Model the fold of this input.
Amino acid sequence: MSSLYSRDFIVTLIIILIPLCLALNTDSYGQRIMTLSGIYAIAAMGYHLIFGRLGALSLAQGCFFGLGAYSAGLIGVHFGLSFLTCLLFAVIFTALVSLIIALPVLRLESHYFALATLGIAQVALLIAINWTEVTGGANGTYGIPQLDLFGVELSSSNDVLILVWVILIIIVSLTFWIMRAPFNYQVTLLKDTPEVAASSGIDIGRWRLTFFIMSAIFGATAGALQAYTIGVVSPATLEFQVMVSILAMTVIGGKNHPAGAVIGAILLTHLPEWFRFLETHYLIAYGAALLCTIIVAPSGIFGLFEKFIIRNPGYDVKSLPSKENKAVSDANSTSLEIQGLSKTYGGIKALKNLNMTLTSYQIVGLVGPNGSGKSTLINIISGLQRQDEGTIELDGSFIENTASYKRSNRGIARTYQTSLRSSDLNVYQAILACSSNQHNLKHRHNQTHAILRNSRLISKTEIMVGDLSTADARELDLCMALATEPKILLLDEPAAGLSSSEQRFLSTKIRHLAQSGISILIVDHSMDFLLPVVDRLICLDQGSVVAEGVPAKVLADPKALKLYFGNARS
Amino acid sequence: MLDISLQIILNGISLGCAYALITLGFVLVINAIGAVNFAQGDFVMAGGFLTVVLAEFMVADNFNPIRASGVIILPLVLISMACFGFLFSMIAYKPLKNRPPVTVFISTIAMGLIIQHSINAGFGPEPQIGPALISSGTITIGTLTISKQQISIILSASFLILCVGFLMNKTQLGRKLRAASQDSEMAESIGINGPQCISITFSLAIALAGAAGLLLSNQFFVTTSDGGLYMLKAYIAVTLGGWGRLDGAVIAALAVGLFEVIMATLVSYVVAEALLFAALLLVLLFRPSGLFAEAIQRRT
Amino acid sequence: MNNATLIISNLNASHKREQTIRDIEITLKEYQSMVIFGATGAGKTSLLRAIMGLDKISSGTIQLNGQNFHTMSTRQRAHLGIGYCPEGRRLFPGLTVWETLAVTFNGKKAERDRRIDEIFHLLPALKIKKGDRAWSLSGGQQQMLAIARATINNPKLILLDEPTLGLSPIMIDEILEIIGSIKDNGATILMAEQKIEPSLSIGDLVVVLSRGEIIYKGLSDDIDPDQIASMVMTGSFEPIHN
Done:
């Protein structure tokens, strides 16, 4: 178990318990407001997951809140079931609705996703107002029974407060459990660089779906509690103001951390009390606070707190087991066969009927002028783009229509031309995030250590990814690719921006990797780097192979030279 | 029967024309900064309230109803809303220009909240009514009875849309705005002032929103909570019309207005709204780039 | 005519925090032109971007006619008289040919129309397409338009970044001929290229870059294409031995 994880959890618990203890000693009015804080903190916790962690701007959180309130409230009024039963029903109902919504909506990008979720929220509001016989129409439904627990009615504001905050603590624990290492790092990677995540074997669709449904479940829980504490459900619970309040709480408190949702909720529910002169217009203050936060401190109050008060303890590498773990799985003879690969976009043929074979222990260099199809080829092998025609065969099975993350799980890893520049992970976390899903956490930690031991990044494990030098960032790319235990490794311009000595270091490393059985494909322009390291050189032009063989042979080929350097030797 | 259906269609077109102004502003901003202005609807509402205030002020000054008619107020609304637009871009966009578009989305949500609830604090949630554009009443042509207000909405909105079209396509300023929104770095490289272009675009977009607010303020009243719905209509029109396209946006906005009025008359307003959102979801599901969309690089 | 003297001294620049060019020293006298060779990633594009003010300069100076301009904004540099034709052309896709030229021109309407006529006279292919939007043009026409855009204000210095990229051999010859005629009119040109032989004649001077540094500098008459090719390929000034 990582120290960072437990430390964060303790900090969050303290942030929850201090105001709770203070609230237990105030009057019933103060307790009611704290109850409201707890309810909103639960809803904001869901929003923290979908928006804060995953970066998907959902505008349906208010809708989930309202759905939870309506479903729990109406069941309570009409069937007289206990609160927990109603809560369970509300959660299941809302989760199902979110699942149905997720099918069309979840694959949409940014603005479309926001719009679609807002549209759904609007439809829900219209239904609530107009389906009078069930929902009670614009006036809502009154007479929701009081909160009860195992047959005991919770009548005092003290009991209600405790129930809500205990549920909050459960939800926070659940959030931490979902976001345990290395999943938290995987999600960060997913948010910052979805492509790198996919080619590191992380399933984007699964995470988006999980978080969307979790946000719905948390939203519904909050809504159900709200309905039961005030005894009414009305269309107001579905209005955009609820959504905006949750958004403001999450952002102002700090969207990157569960504690932020709690801080934001406590702060914003008390704000109308502190600024009484605003009367019912406290939303002006919400707006102003939200605007200031997003401009001045985008990581919110907890972000500031974290920056100035808590220091990241980092990882003590020495204290972790030093047992030798082989960084790379023993790949027996592997082969990747590419046949008849073609790809056309915008009327231009990027690849024309391309054939190529990669085998274990071999390093292949791929050269060619700009636009010759090198990047397209790597993208297609790693599954980022799809071919129009052709097959890709890995150890006897065809993978040309397999999703990118699955190809990674089957042993295809790659690096990118532009290095990872995510700022929320350190070196160790980034490598751990990419470590193969097939192993347990302990093994993953060991593997990360093994990779780091063979790297010059061993002394830089705590440095944030964004602060690395060019050469170190490239080294990290390679380490992340190795963490997925590749059999086939595709390197896209690994030497770009490196000095000669750094290039030599890289050459040696690539050789070692090939000797351990990995098949390596390198795209690079720098011939002085490529020539000594590769076993075979392939020269590509306008999507076809024009020359292929040992480097000396390709270099002597007038066709290759002509295309690469104009009419130089004609 | 004929004149009733014509009346409905005119109703739809006049509403669609107002939507077209809102949507145009919305698209101009999307093209210029690649982000959504969520407060566009609130500026429509703000324009409506500004109209109400200006009309009262003018009537209070000298009891001459002509002087308080919408057409006289329109230029004033356009100018003051353009100033608001400039301020708005300074506060909600400029500090965030190097951040991801979602940040601007949130800052405009925040601005929308501030605008809506500040006006709510000043005027209260009750609907207010703005002045007619020229005069209320009807014209009778043969057996047809047409409301003067609707005709004047359609005429003035069309005039403004044509002005925007002329500005964007036939003037050096418009060419600069388009160049800057298509490739801001390259625009700088040929000497165009990019930040200035963005401020101008915001001014233009919000002036259009204000004009729409004025046009809608008489027939549909103006309420502080209207903003969200207007924003959604613009959003729907943009999606239907092809993200980033001006002509598509105008056509789609007219279609949305017509559809809304016809469905509301034949069935009910709720069904009209629900069907609009359903249509939106279907479009997003099957043609995420919009009904009239071409490839991104082909946008105008 | 123009009296350009470009002096770049000790220039270091970076793109997205990665240093792209190191200690560049270039002097270009009036009417002179220079071709920059180098493999992809060697720093050709970065050098031109740094001169245009699009990449951050960490140290060094750039002077045009005795005036330091490395602290100016990109926009000010454009007004100072630098025309830029970037890699991949980067036309405004929704603007027509005529609009692209009109929006770039700085000056009175009558003068603008006269200047556009001049360009259309030089490039009749563009005249035929003057009402077409840039995205609909062929690659060669797009490149012509990009060059026309970079030259319409009669700049003192013209920066051309791989103008032959992605064009057919016939089109390459045509584009280089156009560039040659612009040079003959007395312009100062700094051009980055990969196609060595056809573009060598454009430059009076030749520079070869490798990993952001100049590894060769000299007169184009003093060196033959094969030597440049081997420098580009190996990244050093020694010929390769097979």
Observations:
- DSSP finds nine helices and ten strands in chain C.
- Chain C touches chain B through 24 residues (CB under 8 Å).
- The beta strands of chain C are 6-15, 18-28, 33-37, 56-64, 67-68, 82-85, 157-161, 188-192, 205-210, 213-219.
